[in-house]
Specification:
28 helices; 6-stranded mixed beta barrel; 54% helix; alpha+beta; 6-stranded mixed barrel
């Protein structure tokens, strides 16, 4: 009834009631008011009764739905119990897909999605320098100090750098990975110590008493979690330091395994230096401030610094980014997201397989569904029953998948390459379980809805008429199963192409000459403490003595000392070749390596022009250098570099310290075979600027090639030589050069191994799907096959007929897979070495493999079709 009709009805009843009251002697106005009151009470009562009726109806319907759901679940469990083979296969397939996806999500969530464990972590930023358009450079002490004073977008700013310190107790010494930081470092992160306190500004100044703050892990492991540690004096970094605090568990800003923090204590000279870029700077945005505001603020500060210090800051500015980007790193983020995409493909393949199983099962239950419809079950009721069955499958699979995910996370963490931050935080937490539940829900929708809708369309008459002949005619029209198999093949093809490209890339990397002769070399690092070795000349002479004594020891064929012979070590410096303007714009960013004279011989690095270092490159003589082939091409294209001069590392335009090129060394792939050689140059340790040993944190690498035996046999000799020079300094980072190369290439190996495993998993699932679809068609077409055989068809004719059904899906899937791979494999471009994302050989080999396994999967059930007896088939007519 419309509202105007309701109003008219109420007005009529008010008028009639008023007349009755007026007839009883009541005044007309009072009768009117009383009538309106009575009818208002009655209307309110009717509304209340109506609301109660609606609520009772809703509760009744809700109870009915719950009862129906319970019936559906009980019936689903009964159906699965009557088909154990189907249940086991479907649950195992889904568990594999859900488990791998949930496990990978847990890793991605811990590393990428989860915020940093600090208050208002979204306000934490890293401040870095941009030079010649290259972002991410460390900050000089002068630029940090001046930049902090020139900006007002931060409530706190701190800076620091990693240092290697020796902890000495009695005759024992061990290396401690620490950070030298400004006093406001901890304020930026907003974390209070678990014990004691952090530095004051007075303690972060030259000449102050030594203090140290310990990490919770170091305090627990090294000092037995003794609460009395605060106030205790330890000898760290060559000087006594008082422990003033212990940070809470988990405080490790960059997930680099920090063990302790000491004050950086900039000297006035260091605060005024703008050309040594070694600090990592962090800041906390002021309340109400945004990252965009901070970037504008830093841009203004950078302009002022360029104007004040044009020689050091030309083409250099300051920039900020969220701290999480520094912690995770763009490379690790991209790799994990690609792997997440790969396991998602496995889940989709699993969904396709289960959908095919459900379609086959739906066809076998056609009469059951038709009878249920004939006796009154609605189509929606039938769909709900079948979707509930697939939902039960998915929930059971999700439970099993959660267990698989937990095991998978452990395996991933165990075999993952180094450099993935916060990986230890990955686990099967509430977020991961919700993800598994969500995956189960999506799986139910993807795998169960279409088969359920299809089964609900079958009419009773059609189902009752359906017999062997009807089944045979239905088979060719069952395109849904063919499309699902084609989709599985396409997804598996995409995974296998990615794995194939990475495998070919790994093989190409093995053929690349790193520029080193790695066999038989042992390396170890030495860090001299700043106290006793504050004088750079003392540090220099100690390293020269180590190299000389190692070289003289029996059993050592060759030995040298280098800043960093392998990996991304070495300081970055700008070189200006003679003839170019002495300004930052002319500089070539190059990697510096300070070495002893035996370096090139020990590592087998070829000198392709000129000479190696020798006794003539002594302190006080003409300054010399050796450049890499890449640097020579950049600095003097098409010209002979020998005898050319370069300014770098020291001096100024007013007082240039020219260095003469005496040799050209072959390029070495210091960052691994996957990375193109950078411009590099070498300085003899005898002529290196004394401040270089501060840049290097008084740390260098011993490189030893034993005369006989395993490389590890050189370690006792290295310890003995170092003990003769300074028994309080330990060796650390001991490794064979082959082991170092394996660590550098660990990420590439892990990527192709994991993607290969996922590709094989997808292939096996697709093979199972192909087998199932052909077997299904064979079962439906038994009558047709019997007739064909009775009419003279050979076994080969039957096999070809049946295999054609599977091959249509395989060929279609390969075509789609090629297109998908061409689009998706480009994301692997940065991972590949020596192979293009569109490599024809990889695509051809993958297609051939898919055809081969597809043929094998289709042949087995097709061959079984030849055993159909014509008399058996014809007898059912």
């Amino acid at each position: 009834m419309r509202r105007d009709e309701v109003d008219s009805e109420l007005a009529f009843h008010v008028e009639m009631t008023a007349r009755e009251l007026e007839a009883s002697g009541m005044d007309r106005a009072e009768a009117r008011l009383e009538a309106e009151r009575r009818l208002g009470d009655m209307a309110e009562m009717r509304r209340r009764l109506k609301r109660l009726a609606v609520q009772r109806d809703r509760s009744r319907r809700r109870a009915m739905r719950c009862e129906e759901l319970g019936q559906d679940v009980r019936q689903a469990l009964g159906q699965l119990g009557r088909s154990p083979g189907f249940a086991v296969l479907a649950i195992a397939t889904l568990a594999l897909g859900i488990g791998s996806t949930t496990g990978m999500f847990s890793v991605v969530n811990a590393v990428i999605l989860r915020s940093l464990p600090y208050a208002d972590a979204d306000r934490l930023v890293e401040v870095h320098e941009v030079w010649q358009g290259v972002s991410g450079g460390n900050v000089s002490a002068g630029n940090f100090v001046d930049g902090r004073e020139l900006t007002n977008s931060f409530s706190a700013m701190g800076a620091g750098h990693q240092v290697n310190l020796s902890l000495v107790e009695g005759d024992a010494a061990e290396r401690v990975l620490a950070w030298a930081v400004t006093h406001d470092w901890f304020e930026v992160f907003g974390v209070r110590p678990a014990l004691g306190r952090t530095f004051t500004a007075a303690e972060d100044s030259p000449g102050a008493d030594g203090v140290v703050v310990l990490s919770h892990a170091f305090w627990s492991e090294r000092f037995g979690a003794d609460a009395r540690i605060v106030g205790r004096e330890i000898r760290l970094g060559g000087r006594p330091r008082t422990v003033i605090g212990v940070m809470p568990a988990g405080f490790d800003p960059f997930a680099w395994g920090d063990r302790a923090w000491v004050p950086v204590a900039f000297t006035p000279e260091r605060r005024a230096m703008h050309d040594e870029h070694y600090l990592i700077a962090v800041g906390r945005l002021a309340a109400g401030g945004t990252l965009a505001d901070a970037r504008l603020d830093l841009d203004r500060a950078g302009a002022i610094l360029r104007e004040r210090y044009p020689q050091d800051n030309a083409e250099r500015t300051l920039m900020a980014r969220p701290l999480s980007e520094l912690v995770v790193g763009a490379t690790a983020r991209a790799r994990l997201l690609v792997l997440m995409g790969a396991v998602t493909l496995v889940l989709l393949i699993a969904c396709g397989n289960v959908a095919n199983l459900l379609l086959a099962r739906g066809a076998s239950r056609a009469r059951e569904m038709a009878v249920r419809g004939a006796i009154g079950a609605s189509r929606g009721r039938i769909v709900r029953q079948l979707v509930t069955e697939s939902g039960v499958l998915a929930l059971v699979a999700a439970s099993l998948g959660a267990a698989l995910a937990s095991a998978g996370i452990g395996l991933f963490a165990r075999y993952a390459p180094p450099g993935i931050p916060r990986l230890d935080e990955a686990g099967l937490d509430a977020t991961a379980l919700l993800f598994a539940l969500g995956a189960a829900t999506i799986t139910t929708i993807l795998a169960g809805t279409v088969p359920a809708l299809r089964a609900s369309r079958i009419s009773a008459a059609a189902a009752m008429r359906e017999g062997p002949r009807g089944a045979s005619t239905a088979a060719p029209r069952d395109r849904m199963r063919t499309l699902l198999i084609g989709g599985e093949v396409a997804l598996a093809f995409t995974l296998l192409v990615g794995a194939g490209l990475l495998i070919r890339s790994a093989l190409a990397m093995e053929r690349i000459d790193p520029g080193f002769d790695l066999d038989g070399i042992m390396t170890a690092r030495v860090t001299f403490p700043p106290g006793a070795y504050a004088d750079g000349e003392a540090t220099r002479q100690s390293f020269i003595r180590i190299a000389d004594e190692l070289d003289a020891r029996p059993g050592i064929r060759a030995a040298a000392v280098s800043q960093a012979p392998m990996g991304p070590g070495g300081n970055s410096n700008g070189l200006v070749p003679e003839g170019r303007p002495l300004e930052a714009a002319s500089a070539i960013d190059s990697r510096l390596r300070v070495v002893t004279s035996g370096y090139f011989e020990t590592l087998g690095v070829r000198i392709v022009a000129g000479r190696p270092f020798d006794e003539s490159d002594a302190a006080g003589g003409n300054l010399t250098m050796i450049v890499s082939e890449t640097l020579a091409r950049r600095a003097w294209p098409g010209e002979d570099p020998i005898g050319r001069r370069v300014i770098c590392c020291e001096g100024s335009p007013d007082d240039p310290r020219w260095k003469t090129v005496v040799g050209v060394a072959a390029d070495v792939r210091s960052d691994g075979p996957a990375v193109e050689p950078r411009p590099e140059f070498y300085l003899p340790i005898t002529q290196a600027p004394v401040q270089a040993f501060d840049w290097m944190d008084r740390t260098m690498t011993l490189v030893v090639r034993p005369a006989v035996g395993e490389p590890a046999g050189a370690v006792p000799i290295m310890r003995d030589v170092l003990g003769d020079i300074d028994p309080g300094v330990p060796l650390h980072s001991i490794s064979s050069m082959t082991g170092a190369l394996l660590r550098v290439t660990a990420t590439a190996r892990f990527n192709f191994q994991l993607l290969t495993a996922l590709g094989i998993t997808g292939l096996l699932l697709a093979v199972g799907g192909i087998y199932g679809v052909v077997a299904f068609f064979v079962g439906l077409r038994r009558y047709e096959i019997g007739v064909r055989i009775a009419l003279g068809a050979t076994g080969g004719d039957v096999v070809r007929l049946m295999m054609r059904q599977g091959f249509v899906a395989v060929l279609g899937g390969i075509v789609v897979g090629v297109a998908a791979s061409l689009a998706s494999s480009r994301v692997l471009g940065g991972w590949l070495v020596g192979v293009e994302p569109t490599d024809p050989l990889t695509y051809s080999a993958t297609a051939a493999l898919m055809l081969l396994v597809g043929a094998a999967a289709a042949f087995v059930p097709a061959r079984r079709a030849t055993r159909v007896e014509p008399t058996e088939s014809l007898s059912v007519v």
